[in-house]
């Protein structure tokens, strides 16, 4: 009988740090037109929760804000605070170049970046610095707690920390920690490996940040830099981790105080440098991205070469094996168009965040913008809505006759019979479970522009379908 006694699992409160052996840090906070209270809440929370011996300075970078309170009043206020420095860009630089300007005047061993509307939680800093001391090529994120944007109440973070992923729109997504990663960790206080980071809150050794090529300075304003940096960290030999013992709150505002339309070009830069042939999966689902002017990335490609970084395939296989990799066979993806109801396409609106399953597929005028009109016919006979992660699969319901979307099967599992379709030579789309064909109906009770429905097979043109990539 196992008489090993009950060993208590260590908790974050049990961790003790020898401050003198930890590296020092500089906290860099770039801001653009931030409110006074949230900016100062960030600064004070850093000062109050960071052990004096570990914190070299807090560098505030004003990215050319025009609000009055961020000018002289801010200077006056912080002149009374120890360790806080303020520098200003001379034109709007965007968060990448603003952060780098801040980093350039720091004196600490480790750079810790924060957004300008955060609240650091007691004990947030030590685990980050300790991990970097232990593993200098680790880039470490705190758990991001939620601060309600309208009440500013600190809600914390219920349950297990989550890790970062992305979908094929190159949008950052949150995920539960996969089982293989739970197994790899020995203790609940061990870091959690994460394929990507949200972007705003992380610590990195200054030397390692420079070795890795800091940021892509061709990225403007907001967006894309987080995935670019995440891919680069993993592909070039580092690791990206969440420390479950470090917590920082962040206000996710309902609307940013600036336009975010540069995000597309930034994402394209990331795809062009890091994703190899997998950038096509992105472009198929976002045809406008292919047309976006993204500037010159030759320096970044040289950096990749110089560092001898691994392929995107390696990253997907080893770091993000949960992601579905669409096969996108020629002629088997894009808009799913009908021959009888001309210029009408399958359309699915899954809602804002994670894919909302169970909603109905409708027919809508074909727009050629990918996204909600992008479907893919898989080798297993599924019609996949694989723009989001985890992807959805079209399901036929014999009773209602309509098509909805459910989560697809996991890899290596058989396709549920109600998700199985045969796209036949003559263009008919045969639903195996109901033995019926997909027919383009006009108006129905949910959609003024019609919907596909399962009907007895016939040679009506309304039952002929074809994929088309471009409008
Ligand atoms: C998330 C990240 C953010 C960044 C972004 C992708 C978190 C909590 N936040 O969006 O840090 O990685 O995804 O790009 O992970 N700013 C400037 N100049 C600008 C625009 C923004 O200095 O032109 C500042 C801004 O004031 C803030 C920071 O950059 O301090 C990030 O911007 P955000 O808070 O609007 O982004 P967020 O949190 O929605
Ligand atoms: Mn933010």
TrEMBL record:
EC top class, as a word: transferase
Places the protein is found: Golgi apparatus membrane
GO cellular component, one term: Golgi membrane
Pathway(s) where this gene product acts: Protein modification; protein glycosylation
Membrane topology: Single-pass type II membrane protein
One of the GO biological process terms: protein O-linked glycosylation via N-acetyl-galactosamine
Co-factor requirement: Mn(2+)
GO molecular function, one term: carbohydrate binding
Broad class of where this protein is predominantly found: Golgi
EC number: 2.4.1.41
Positions of the Ricin B lectin domain: 329-468
InterPro entries: GalNAc-T (IPR045885), Glyco_trans_2-like (IPR001173), Ricin_B_lectin (IPR000772)
UniProt xrefs under SMART domains: RICIN
Top-level taxon of origin: Eukaryota
Entry keywords, A to Z: Disulfide bond, Glycosyltransferase, Golgi apparatus, Lectin, Manganese, Membrane, Metal-binding, Signal-anchor, Transferase, Transmembrane, Transmembrane helix
PANTHER family: N-ACETYLGALACTOSAMINYLTRANSFERASE, POLYPEPTIDE N-ACETYLGALACTOSAMINYLTRANSFERASE 12
The family this protein is said to belong to: Belongs to the glycosyltransferase 2 family. GalNAc-T subfamily.
Protein name, UniProt field: polypeptide N-acetylgalactosaminyltransferase
């Amino acid at each position: 009988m196992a008489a090993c006694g009950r060993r208590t699992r260590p908790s974050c409160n049990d961790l003790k740090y020898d401050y003198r052996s930890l590296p020092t840090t500089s906290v860099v906070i770039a801001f653009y037109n931030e409110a006074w209270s949230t900016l100062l809440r960030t600064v004070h929370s850093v000062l109050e929760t960071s052990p004096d011996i570990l914190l070299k300075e807090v560098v505030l970078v004003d990215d050319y804000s025009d609000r009055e309170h961020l000018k002289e009043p801010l200077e006056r206020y912080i002149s009374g605070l120890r360790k806080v420095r303020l520098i200003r860009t001379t034109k709007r630089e965007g968060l990448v170049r603003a952060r780098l300007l801040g980093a350039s005047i720091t004196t600490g061993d480790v750079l810790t970046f924060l957004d300008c509307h955060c609240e650091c939680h007691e004990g947030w800093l030590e685990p980050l610095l300790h991990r970097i001391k232990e593993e200098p090529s680790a880039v470490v994120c705190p758990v991001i707690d939620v601060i309600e944007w309208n009440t500013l109440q600190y809600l914390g973070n219920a349950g297990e920390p989550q890790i970062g992923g992305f979908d094929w729109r190159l949008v950052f997504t949150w995920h539960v920690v996969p089982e293989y990663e739970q197994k790899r960790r020995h203790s609940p206080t061990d870091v959690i490996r994460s394929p990507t980071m949200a972007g705003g809150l992380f610590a990195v050794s200054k030397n390692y940040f420079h070795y890795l090529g800091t940021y892509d300075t061709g990225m403007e304003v907001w967006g894309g830099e987080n995935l670019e940096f995440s891919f680069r960290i993993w592909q070039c030999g580092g690791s990206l981790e969440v420390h479950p013992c470090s917590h920082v709150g962040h206000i996710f505002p309902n609307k940013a105080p600036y336009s975010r339309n540069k995000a597309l070009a930034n994402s394209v830069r990331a795809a062009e440098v890091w994703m190899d042939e997998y950038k096509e999966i992105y472009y198929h689902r976002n045809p406008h991205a292919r047309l976006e002017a993204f500037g010159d990335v030759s320096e970044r490609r040289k950096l990749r070469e110089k560092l001898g970084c691994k392929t995107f395939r390696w990253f997907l296989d080893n770091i993000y094996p949960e992601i579905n990799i669409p096969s996108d066979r020629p002629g088997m993806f894009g808009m799913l168009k009908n021959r009888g109801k001309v210029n009408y396409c399958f359309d699915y609106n899954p809602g804002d965040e994670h894919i909302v399953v169970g909603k109905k597929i409708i027919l809508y005028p074909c727009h050629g913008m990918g996204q909600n009109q992008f479907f893919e016919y898989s080798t297993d006979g599924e019609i996949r809505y694989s723009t989001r992660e985890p992807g959805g699969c079209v399901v036929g319901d014999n009773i209602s006759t309509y098509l909805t979307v459910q989560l697809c099967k996991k890899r290596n599992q058989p396709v549920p019979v109600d998700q199985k379709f045969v796209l036949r030579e003559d263009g008919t789309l045969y639903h195996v479970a109901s033995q019926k064909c997909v027919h383009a109906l006009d108006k129905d009770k949910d959609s003024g522009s019609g919907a596909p429905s399962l009907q007895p097979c016939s040679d009506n043109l309304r039952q002929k379908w074809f994929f088309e990539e471009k409008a």
